[in-house]
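note to self: dont lose this again. the chain is below, predicted strucutre after it. 401 aa total, dont forget to put it in the shared folder this time
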Amino acid sequence: MKKGLKITLIVVGVLVGIIALDTLQAKIFDNSPILKIRDNLDGVTLDYIDKGIFVNHYHCNNNEDVTTWKSTKYSCPIEESKDITNDGLEEKFLQCLEGQLGGYLVTEKDELVEIPLSEIKKNDTDKIEYYKGVYASEHPDNMYLIVYPKNGTYDTSVMKDFDKYFYEKFSTYQTYSSSTSPTIYIHNSNLDVDFKNVLSKCQKSNSSNGGKSISSKTVNKLNATKKIVIKTSDNELGTIKDNTKIEKILSAISSSKQYGDAFLCDNYAFNFEMYDSNNKLVDTIYVWFDGKRLIPSSINSKGCSYYSISNGIDLRQTIEEETDYLFYNILDFRDNINETTESLIYKDNKNSYYLKSKNSNEILIEFILNNKVMTLKYALENKYISAEKVANDYKDILIKK
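---
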């Protein structure tokens, strides 16, 4: 080997070794790489980024240091804007929620910028217990709001401004609310926020491993199922015969547990009739509207008891996939609910459809499973749902002529 080539290989080898060691020490210990270019951002949450060859080192304004691979997005935690609410929202939960949602907004060049509450609400701000709003500096259409009213009471007159802020900006966005978390509004380019995943990372599980399972006798009997007929009231929605899909439903049922003896007394919404290979009814599973609660009719007792699915399966997803049923709500933000003006918003080959509102932006539709919200007009024009279905379900809002 020529001396010059040998020296070159040695130098290259030493450089590769230095880069590898520098990358490893930065990644393992959350240190800044030695070989780097520093971007001073001086933002709300992020002080600077040290950009290495294979890693980026983030120094947050709360003195947190995190080193990630180049392909990984990271958002510094947002400091609390106010004390933790008196309604039981925990500081760690809120910080986790902000961090998770922030990850859906930012790219490597973004910093999160605060949206003042005064930009959205002029009145009744004293009725908001907790608020956080931010957008991405380089992608201002990427934003979220987290809102929790005092006492956890959703008052339309108080919350309406937050809804309006979003539906006037975007044709489609996502929202989430529940009795155990703040209301969330979020928009990003992909509309891909998985709220179930976000909350599972941030919320403590309310259940324990000590729940009561459905009896093995009942589970074994249900394992003979070869066909499932899904019904609501007396209406048949669809039939499932695919073994893989049946096994998924059986897995959800067998994972179900009953925790304690305190239950909501809302009634179930669907019947899953389970048939064997001889078309004999094995059992009927009563399924609640949330897709997570169920009870076999063979063990149903007086009262409000049910079992809760514990393996993450949502039977609403199965219902939408196997039938024409859609889980959706119409959101009515009209100031005058007695509006008599009828505006044409959609027309097909058979009928014309009129909205009882002067402003079509005031009537929105929320698709529950993917948390997407859009104007009803936009949903009809883009075939998210049929006008016929909405007109049948909401005769007082959408008029068919």
